[in-house]
Design goal:
Layout (H helix, E strand, L loop, with lengths): L1 E7 L22 H13 L4 E5 L13 H6 L8 H11 L4 E7 L5 H14 L4 E6 L4 H5 L9 H20 L6 E4 L4 E3 L9 E2 L4 E2 L14 E4 L4 H10 L2 E4 L4 H17 L8 E10 L3 H14 L3 H12 L14 H6 L4 H11 L6 H9 L6 E4 L1 H13 L5 E5 L5 H16 L12 H4 L13 H5 L1
Parallel strand pairs: 1-2, 1-13, 2-3, 3-4, 4-9, 9-10, 10-11, 11-12, 11-13
Antiparallel strand pairs: 5-6, 7-8
Length: about 450
């Protein structure tokens, strides 16, 4: 199975109460913090570690950052290119991924950032493609409101087309390094892309040569119909959030069908549900940890603040005990899918904002594997072998302890069952994921040339 670690360059893990856990490390503004986590994950032979990101502090609730700051609801987000540079220097094998937005960045910037990381890490870069989520991010980039859903994906389609062209603008073997004759590179193998589209005009070439992977690995997490189509066309790894094994199996079948319809081999794209793992030396210890994380550490106001962030709706005028009505669902962009996911956990009775917000803050819409190392391995094996996933994106309750527990208690179990590698065997991230290097769209067809 493929194992990916999900991180935040932040005061918290993806679980917003993690900063309060007694053993959670507090040196998240020190590069050594991220290097320590990376070394643990590399010891566990994880394929990839990648960082989520937002381009704004959560400010939708009450039109203010006050509650996010007060309760530690992800108010800190460090620049990921700097973080990954530090991690690359401290590791040798693990893949290094970052989230970059197609809505508020430019294709040349993103292409150069990830091509540089791919070279400097020896072929380990991955880009998590997102379209961003709310007005707070828009307002940090001179735009009053976030683009509508379809417009964001229209822009993202063109954005990634341009990035792919830029990554391909240097062919293999372009650098000659002919010092005797003073010829550095072959200009016939370096191409201006001359892209002129609806959203972007980019001349090129990129200022970074063809990378060790050809192109960095692409991660995508679209859950909507448009998002699934986008992932089918572009993604190498698809990051999902399915609350049950049965739902994950159906999602898996649908997404693989879309990949085939997009003209790609379905088994070359990996579907990876995000899963919390809470591991203990005994089941009692694991269940006690679960209770602490889910019932005691997340402040209700932090939950509501994060619900406002992800739905782009200000819930300040509502009480936590307000019932989530059909009228509210219809008026809030982005809430329908979240409500459907939560109802799969809690049933079809009355759903309050408190329950909805807590599920979002603790990301309960994905599976949660709790128990001893063998018990967690049992649950992961069941999903993996039932056609529900090709592996998992493992989310940590706290840093670095949750990953330390997983590597110490679960990874040996997976290895002993033949479900996971014992060592890295590939030279690049694509090698370790068994992904082929993409063809260069500018390279001449050798057969046609010779004919």
């Amino acid at each position: 199975m493929t194992l990916v670690a999900f991180l935040q360059a932040s005061n918290v893990s993806v679980y917003s109460g993690s900063w309060r856990y007694p053993s959670a490390a507090a040196d998240y503004l020190d590069l050594r913090y991220y290097q320590r986590i990376a070394r643990v994950l590399e010891e566990g032979t994880f394929d990839l570690m990648f960082f989520d990101d937002r381009l704004a502090m959560p400010t939708i609730y009450g039109d203010s950052p006050a509650e996010a700051v007060r309760y530690g609801a992800r108010p800190i987000k460090l620049d990921l290119s700097t973080v990954l540079g530090a991690v690359a220097a401290a590791t040798e094998h693990i893949g290094l991924g970052a989230t970059y937005s197609t809505t508020y960045y430019q294709p040349f910037h993103v292409a150069r950032t990830f091509a540089t990381l791919d070279h400097l890490s020896g072929g380990r870069a991955a880009w998590n493609v997102v379209t961003s989520v709310n007005d707070a991010e828009a307002q940090n980039f001179g735009v009053e409101q976030h683009f509508a859903h379809d417009k964001r994906y229209d822009r993202a389609e063109e954005f990634i087309e341009v990035v792919a062209k830029l990554w391909d603008s240097w062919e293999e073997g372009a650098i000659l390094d002919d010092r005797a004759n003073g010829v550095f590179a072959d200009p016939e193998r370096v191409h201006e892309v001359d892209h002129q589209g609806e959203y972007f005009t980019v001349r090129g070439p990129l200022t970074v040569p063809r990378t060790p992977q050809g192109r960095p690995v692409i991660i995508q997490a679209g859950q909507s119909g448009r998002g699934m189509q986008f992932a089918a066309k572009w993604a190498d790894l698809i990051f999902t959030a399915d609350p049950s094994q049965e739902i994950a199996q159906e999602h898996y079948r649908q997404q693989k069908k879309l990949i085939t319809e997009a003209g790609r081999e379905a088994d070359t794209v990996k579907l990876l549900p995000m899963a919390y793992t809470i591991v203990g030396e005994t089941e009692t210890i694991a269940r006690e940890k679960e209770k602490i994380f889910l019932d005691e550490l997340v402040h209700p106001m932090a939950s509501l603040t994060l619900l406002s962030e992800v739905t782009n709706y200000d819930f300040a005028g509502h009480s936590l005990d307000d019932v989530v009505t059909d009228e509210l669902i219809d008026s809030v962009s982005g809430i329908r899918g979240l409500v459907q996911g939560v109802r799969r956990h809690v049933g079809e009775g009355k759903l309050t904002l408190r329950t909805l917000a807590n599920h979002r803050a603790t990301l309960l819409q994905g599976p949660r594997f709790v128990g001893t190392g063998p018990q967690v391995a049992d649950q992961m094996q069941q999903w993996f072998e039932s056609g529900a996933s090709d592996g998992f994106v493992v989310a940590a309750t706290h840093f670095p302890g949750a990953f330390e527990d997983f590597v110490r208690l679960v990874v040996p179990e997976l290895r002993s069952r033949g479900l996971f590698r014992t060592e890295y065997t590939g030279a690049t991230l694509r090698d370790n994921l068994s992904l082929a290097q993409p063809a260069n769209q500018f390279a001449k067809n050798e057969e046609a040339t010779s004919a």
